[in-house]
Design goal:
Oligomer: single chain
Distance between the termini: 59 Å
Strand order of the largest sheet: 8-9-11-10-12-13
Number of strands: 13
Number of helices: 11
Structural class: alpha+beta
Radius of gyration: 22 Å
Shape: globular
Order of helices and strands: HEEEHHHEHEEEHHEHHEHEEHEE
Length: 323
């Protein structure tokens, strides 16, 4: 299929599979493209391996992670089918223009693109050693440069300490700029669980089976638990919308009560009016969902939060407290 020595290649081990895929894709695309293997540490310290395909003259390309493709191969899908599928993913997500690397060297050009996102503090302790951040309950506020978005989704670059040093700014200035930009650049979306999930399905950003699981979970909730989703316009790191105090205050006023915040994942949170369910039941639901339905690198927290209508504060709900 890929040469007479194909049978001698190691495609059964994960590392061997990655090498085989890289070699085959390189041969299929030719010398105009560079295909290399990359190991990436993602959110929550999750290490993933993939290939990066870069077209000649371009300096940015998506990482295509291979763990899922490997599982499909082990389940019986042919290597040729997998490689064709991988190439389809590349053509769909490839960058159309070069990234202006000079952007990241000039604070005046970068400052209007700086946004924030929320990650789990404990799960990202190693990352946070080199990343400017602020502690927020059991989470950390970190900062990104938003490169823009289209029908395929959004693109961001995480800001590290060396960027802040290069720009000659303070952590407080970075924080202030991010809090000004994020609501303007990313916006906010609030609606019923079903409406938001169907919108995501229409955009093709989440696999159909995950959508169906989320919707069925809502329908199975005891006593018709009312669930509402808060995220941003791009459904990209939208859990940070809980830091939009005006939105939260408006929801609390509309409902006339405090409300519970359930961390669905790093991209969205679920809001539930206070008093409709015991906190320990809600906390257990969050844990169960994180263990069975959320990708490891997309988990935000196992904890439950509460927005206090009177004070506008978000607090941890439960015994464990954080500074």
């Amino acid at each position: 299929m890929q040469g007479k020595d194909f049978k001698e290649r190691d495609c059964m081990s994960f590392d061997g599979f990655c090498t085989c895929v890289r070699m085959d894709i390189q041969k299929m695309l030719g010398s105009v493209y560079s295909v290399r293997e990359e190991s990436v540490i993602k959110n929550n310290g999750i290490r993933m391996k993939g290939i990066c395909i870069t077209e000649q003259g371009m300096n940015i390309s998506p990482n295509i992670y291979l763990e899922g493709y490997y599982e499909a191969y082990r389940a019986g899908r042919s290597l040729r089918e997998i490689e064709n599928s991988l190439l389809q993913s590349y053509w769909k997500n490839k960058a159309e223009v070069r990234f202006d690397t000079g952007l990241f060297k000039d604070w005046k050009r970068t400052r209007d693109k700086v946004i924030f996102k929320l990650v789990n503090y404990d799960r990202n302790r190693e990352l946070l050693k080199d990343v400017p951040h602020r502690r927020f309950l059991d989470l950390a506020i970190v900062y990104e440069c938003f490169l823009g978005a289209d029908s395929r989704g959004g693109a961001t670059i995480l800001i590290h300490d060396n960027h802040v040093e290069l720009w000659g700014i303070t952590a407080d200035e970075l924080h202030a700029v991010a809090f000004k930009n994020t609501p303007e650049l990313m916006g906010g979306t609030f609606g019923s669980m079903e409406a938001v999930m169907l919108d995501i399905m229409d955009s093709g950003k989440v696999e159909l089976d995950r959508i169906e699981k989320m919707l069925s979970r809502e329908k199975r909730a005891k006593n018709s638990l009312p669930m509402f989703v808060l995220t941003n316009h791009y459904k990209l790191h939208g859990a940070g919308c809980i830091l939009y105090k005006n939105i939260l205050k408006g929801i609390a006023e509309k409902w006339g009560c405090d409300f519970i915040i359930l961390p669905s994942n790093i991209h969205m949170v679920i809001l539930v009016p206070d008093g409709v369910r015991r906190y320990d039941e809600l906390a257990q639901m969050v844990i169960d969902v994180n263990r069975t339905q959320v990708m490891p690198d997309e988990i935000l927290s196992d904890n439950v939060y509460k927005f206090i209508r009177e004070t506008g504060e978000i607090i941890m709900q439960g015994e464990k407290e954080y500074e």
